[in-house]
Amino acid sequence: MNAYQNDIDAIRALKATHGAPWDAIDPESAARMRAQNRFRTGLEIAQYTADIMRRDMAEYDTDPSAYTQSLGVWHGFIGQQKLISIKKHLKSTKGRYLYLSGWMVAALRSEFGPLPDQSMHEKTSVPALIEELYTFLRQADARELDLLFAKLDAARAAGDETAAEFVRSQIDNFQTHVVPIIADIDAGFGNPEATYLLAKKMIEAGACAIQIENQVSDEKQCGHQDGKVTVPHEDFIAKLTAVRYAFLELGIDNGIIVARTDSLGAGLTQKLAVTREPGDLGDQYNSFLDTEEISHAELGNGDVVLARGDKLLRPKRLASNLFQFRPGTGEERVVLDCVTSLRNGADLLWIETEKPHIDQIAGMVDAIREEIPDAKLVYNNSPSFNWTLNFRQQAYDLLESEGADVSAYDRNNLMSAEYDDTDLARLADEKIRTFQRDGSARAGIFHHLITLPTYHTAALSTDDLAKGYFGDDGMLAYVRGVQRREIREGIATVKHQNMAGSDLGDSHKEYFAGEAALKAGGVHNTMNQFG
C-alpha cells in the first residue's frame, strides 16, 4: 500500500471518530492537501535541507566530481522558476541549491531603494526573502501535485487502472522543489548579539546554511570593491560562535556555517589584535601589519606601537584611523583565516578572489589542507569577473608557455569580437565550460554559485523586449521573443493563471463546496488556448 493511500486511510479513520459533523470532509481531499503542504514550518525546512547539505558534503569528500551548484535569486518567483526548470530539464534537484545574495537584497529589496553592497539595507529583508523563497517553492510543490491529482482523477474516470497506478507512484515518489539555501548574513549586521538574533530569524525562515564574512560590519564593502577592512580573528570567531548558538537553540544541530574571508583583497584593519604571548593568534594577525621600527626617542604624540622582542614597531595608520597590512600578504592571511575558522566552528570556506584562476585558488587550498585535510570551499563564480577576458588571457599565457605562435593576438585587447572565432577563444571557452568541474577536482570547491546572475538576466531580457516592442516590431517582439518560445519550449508560465494558483484554488473550492463551487477554470478561461 502506498503512502498516499495510507494517508487517505488514516484520515478516513479520523473522520469516523467525529461522526456526522465531519460528513463534508472527503479523506482523499484532505490527504491531497497534506501532501501539498509537506513542510509546515521554516524549521522543518532548515532541518530537511541541512540533512541534504551534510549528505552532499560527505559525498564530495569521497568524490570531488559530486560538487553542488546554485544561482543567486532575488525574488520567490525567480527561485521557483529556477527549480521548475531544473526538474523539467535535469529531472532531479540533487546537488542544486539556491543562493541568497546580500548584494541583490541591497540592490533590489531595500525600502531605501537600490543600495550598494555595504550592509545599509534593512537586515529584516534577509529572513523575509528566505521565507518568500520557500513560500514560492512550496507553492510549486502544491501546483505540480495538483496537476498529478487531476491526472489521477482523469485516469479513474476513464477506468484506466494502469494509468491510475502510474500516477499514484508519481505522487508517492514526488520530489519537492524545496532545496537548501545558502544565505548571506554579510558581516553580521552589528555585534555578536545582533548576529545571533538575525541568524535565528534566518534559520526560523528556513535557512540551513549561513555565510558570514570577516569584514568590519559598519565598514562592510562588496567583496569585489576596494576599501575592505577585516577584523581580528577573535572578533570573527565570536560571530561564528553566535551563529552556531542560534542553530543549536533552534534544534538544527547540523546547521552549516560558511566562513568567508576577504583578506585577499582587504589591505586594512580597523584595530590591532589582542596578543598575550609571541606567536599566538593575535600576534600572527598583527605580524602582517605594515610597520616601521622606531626608537623611544622617535615616538610621537598619540603614536600606537607594538613591542616585538626588544624592538618597537609603529604600524602605519591612515587618516581614517585604519591600519594597513603589508602588500603581498593577502594569500598568507587567507590561509590563516581559513584554518582558524575551521578550527572554531565553521564547516565550509569562502575565499573571495579577484579573478577566476584555479591555480591561485588551489595554491591557497593546498596550504589550508596541510592543516585541515577535508577543507572545502564555496566559490563565487562572480559576474564581477570579466570571464571572457580572464580566460582568453589564461589561454594566451598557456599557448605562449607551450611555444605556440601568439603574435596574431593582442593580449590586452582579447575581449574584442574579432577573436571570437579563433583557436584561442575556443580554448578559453572550453576552460570556462569546465571551470566548475576542474575547480572542484583541483581546488576543493564543493559548491559553485553565481551571486547575482538573475539581476543580469532580468535586465538583459527586459532590454530585448523593450527594444523590439517600443520599436518597429511592436507586439511581434513579445509574441516571437516570449510567448511563442514559452509554448514551444514548455515554459509553464505561458499558463500564468495556473502558475499563480488559479487551478489550485479551483481544486480547493471543489473540496470545500462540492458541485456548488464557482470555479475559474471553465471553458471560457482563455488559458485553454494553450492546451
TrEMBL record:
Catalytic residues (positions): C222
List of residues binding Mg(2+): D184
Molecular function, one GO term: metal ion binding
Pfam families from the UniProt entry: ICL
NCBIfam families given in the database record: PRK06498.1
Record InterPro entries: ICL/PEPM, Isocitrate_lyase, Pyrv/PenolPyrv_kinase-like_dom, Pyrv_kinase-like_dom_sf
Cofactor note: Can also use Mn(2+) ion.
Listed SUPFAM superfamilies: Phosphoenolpyruvate/pyruvate domain
UniProt-listed Gene3D superfamilies: Phosphoenolpyruvate-binding domains
Keyword Ligase in record: no
Keyword list, A-Z: Lyase, Magnesium, Metal-binding
Annotated residues for binding of substrate: S101, G102, W103, G223, H224, R260, N380, N381, S382, P383, S384, T451
Catalysed conversion reaction: D-threo-isocitrate = glyoxylate + succinate
Signal peptide positions (record): none
Cofactor dependence: Mg(2+)
Protein name in the entry: Isocitrase
PANTHER family in UniProt: BIFUNCTIONAL GLYOXYLATE CYCLE PROTEIN, ISOCITRATE LYASE/MALATE SYNTHASE
